Structures are given as C-alpha cells and as structure tokens.
Amino acid sequence: MNIMFMGTPDFALISLEKLVERGYNVTSVVCREDKPKGRGGQMAMPPTKEFAIEKGINVYQPASFKDGAFKEVLEKENPDIIIVVAYGRILPEYVLNYPKYGCINLHGSILPKYRGSAPIQWTVINGDELAGVSTMFMDVGLDTGDIIDIYTTPLGKTETAGELFDRLAVSGAELLCETIEKIKNGTAKRTPQNENEATYAPMLSKEMGKLDFAMPAEKIRNLVRGLSPWPSAYVNTNKGIMKVHAAEVINKNADVPAGTRIPSKDAIILQTTDGQISLAEVQLQGKKRMSAAELLRGHDIVIEE
User: Fold this and answer.
1) Cβ of 207: how many Cβ atoms within 10 Å?
2) Is there a contact between 117 and 39 (Cβ–Cβ < 8 Å)?
3) What is the spatial distance between Cα 1 and Cα 26, in angstroms, rounded to a whole number?
4) What is the CATH code of the structural domain delimited by 206-304?
5) Under 8 Å CB-to-CB from 18, ≥6 apart: which residues?
6) Which among 260, 245, 250 is positioned nearest to 217, based on CA atoms?
7) Residues 81 and 28 sit within 8 Å (Cβ to Cβ)
8) CATH 3.40.50.10490 fits 3-201, yes or no
C-alpha cells in the first residue's frame, strides 16, 4: 500500500520511524508549517519533516485544505491509505474519502474517552488508573470514528504527562502497525463509539497552571503531573513566578485556612482543603530545576496570591 503519513510532533515521529523501519511504503509525509523556535526565533522544521527529508520521502506542508486545495497532492501521491498521528488539523471530507482503505488515526486515549487535543494530559490531570491509545477509521467528527484497536496500560502513580507521552508514543506505533496489518488482511473490525461514554480533552493553557490550594491535595498533585512538562503548574512568589514540577501529598491537617504555608526549614508545604501538599521540585524564572530543599538554602520564599 502507498501510505501518506500526516503528523507533526515527536509523538508522530515515533510512529513514522516505526513504519519505515518495518518496511511499509511511506511515499509522503504531510505536516504543519515550520515555526520559530527558541530565543533566537529561528525557523525550525517539524520532527517528521526532518526525518522524511533524511529518508528521501516527499514532504507537504499545506496552509489550508479549503476549496480542494490539497486535491492536486492527493492525485499526485495517490495514497491507498492515510495514517494520521497528531497532525493538528481537521481533515475535510474530500481528503477522508480519497484513499481506498480510508484515513486511520492513532489517538492518545481509550476512546471514546478524551476526544480532542490533549488526551494524555487530561488522563493524568484526572488521575485515571488506566491510560491508552486507540486506532480508528476517521470520519468528519472530532475523534468520533469507528474504533479498530485499543491498547491500555496502568498509569504510574508519579508518572507525568511527558513520561506518559513517551510511553504511549512507542506503544501507539506498535498498535498502528498491528492495525495496518489487519486492514491489509481484511480482518480489521469496526466498533462504533458509545456516545454516552464520550468525554473531551480540551487544549491546555498557561492559565490552567496556577495552583489553587482550595482544591484537594490529590487533585493538585495530579494537576502538577498533568501539566508537566508544558505548560507547567506554578505559584506566585516574592521572587516571581515559580514553576512546580513535582508535588507530594502529606496526609496531615492543620487548623488553618487552605493556602497557609506550614512552617518547615527544608520543604515548601501548604495546607489544602483535605490535607497538605509539599512542592517537591520547583524552578524560579531563569534558574534550573531543583528540590525545594535546595531552593530554600539560598532563598527566602513567600507564596503570594
């Protein structure tokens, strides 16, 4: 089969590398546009584009699919199947209907749970016991197509969204290869999604990261994990914004309002609504990540509203 691969970030790169490694005939890669990166603002290629160029695979970066703008590329490449992994753009019907075997999407959740753009992060933020990836036949809805395969795995108690991303990228690439084999062999089964079980995983924003100690301690800990590495949880301090990269729940209570700092020489501990939480790994602006104990050896930190 001629495969057109649509994907942009590192999560997609793992699947693309696996397809090429397994000998699948990836004839073209479609990704988002180059973007400025770093302090210098130099234009950087998406990871999938870099890999495709290295392997001599045709690359396309359409600015739009409107008004049939991509039809010429489809006719030139004539894909039998389109594989979509974290591409970042909704595909119109004329693209979805073009390939003989359809458009197949690898999604970072156990569908129909967490449709949308940030499924892995919300899995961690909500403290789910299970995480996973799904492959599905794409339709015009947002992650609403018939499911083909699902892989599930326990979510680690301290696992961050970034760590889960790395694990699911590898597991997802394997699942994708299994799905393609089933499609080739005519054994792929279609399971309609149960709309009553559908939930959504909206985009993250930096504003989500401000910690509210009126929340339960476990929810704060999960929020810290789910927003790592981006956009990061944070608190305002007398030294400016302080990112929080790890937090630990302490099953103690003090008769003080939520948000009150609990005295400690080597830890940053705050009262919540149902216990206490220790901001274990932190980072001041312009400084490296460090333990709270390390930070307190050189700074007098005051948590502010």
Assistant:
1) 7
2) no
3) 8
4) 3.10.25.10
5) 173, 174, 176, 177
6) 250
7) no
8) no
Per-residue 3-state assignment (H helix, E strand, C coil) for 154-182:
ECCCCCCHHHHHHHHHHHHHHHHHHHHHH
Angle of helix 47-55 relative to helix 10-21, nearest 10 degrees, comes to 20
| Cα gap 190→179, rounded to integer Å | 11
Helices (H) and strands (E) in the chain, counts: 8, 18
In this structure, what are the phi and psi dihedrals at residue 52, rounded to the nearest 5 degrees?
A: -60, -40
- Assessment of whether the complete model's pTM goes beyond 0.70: yes
pLDDT block averages, 10 residues each, the chain of length 305: 97 98 98 89 94 98 94 97 96 97 98 97 98 97 97 97 98 98 97 98 96 97 97 97 97 92 95 96 96 94 92
> What is the location of CATH 3.10.25.10 in the chain?
206-304
Backbone region of residue 275 per phi and psi (left: phi > 0; alpha: psi in -120 to 50; beta: other values) = left
Enumerate the CATH 3.40.50.170 domain ranges in the chain, comma separated: 3-201
